[in-house]
Design brief:
Layout lengths: L2 H9 L2 E7 L2 E7 L2 E4 L2 E7 L3 H8 L2 E7 L5 E11 L2 H10 L14 E14 L6 E3 L2
Antiparallel strand pairs: 1-2, 1-5, 3-4, 4-7, 5-6, 6-7, 7-8
Length: 131
């Protein structure tokens, strides 16, 4: 399994930072998966976050694991018009099925390009983790 995906899954909820103009915007996410060797996230194309990601695809993601360590991930999100990835996300995160379906015109999947991730703690030196 991709170590970045594993670290984000361990946080349960992670926070995605985007920008709107010159204002940072942060919101919680929980849907992440590995598909086709890539790290995928999902959202709704009617949300502000989706439009922010499309305008400036650079994001930073942060989540805290139960042991008190935290992970920070940077990269660029790329929209993927891939119904296979959409279906896989719905299977991975069945709670999304109450909001979305493949082909509904609003459910989007995006993969992370140029991902870099670091694991931090209060006691150890930061450690790069591989995608």
């Amino acid at each position: 399994m991709n170590q970045i995906v594993k670290a984000l899954e361990e946080t349960k909820v992670f926070y995605v930072a985007t920008v709107e103009g010159d204002q940072p915007r942060v919101r919680p996410f929980g849907a992440v998966m590995e598909y086709g060797g890539r790290i995928y996230f999902s959202t709704n194309n009617t949300k502000n976050v989706y439009h922010q990601m499309r305008k400036n695809p650079k994001v930073e993601i942060c989540g805290c694991k139960p042991d008190g360590t935290w992970v920070r991930v940077t990269g660029r999100l790329v929209r993927d018009d891939n119904d296979g990835a959409r279906a896989a996300m719905l299977e991975k995160m069945p709670e999304l099925k109450s909001m979305y379906r493949v082909g509904d015109g609003k459910f989007e999947v995006l993969f992370l390009e140029d991902a870099e991730a670091t694991l931090y703690s209060m006691t150890d030196a930061p450690k790069k983790i591989a995608g």
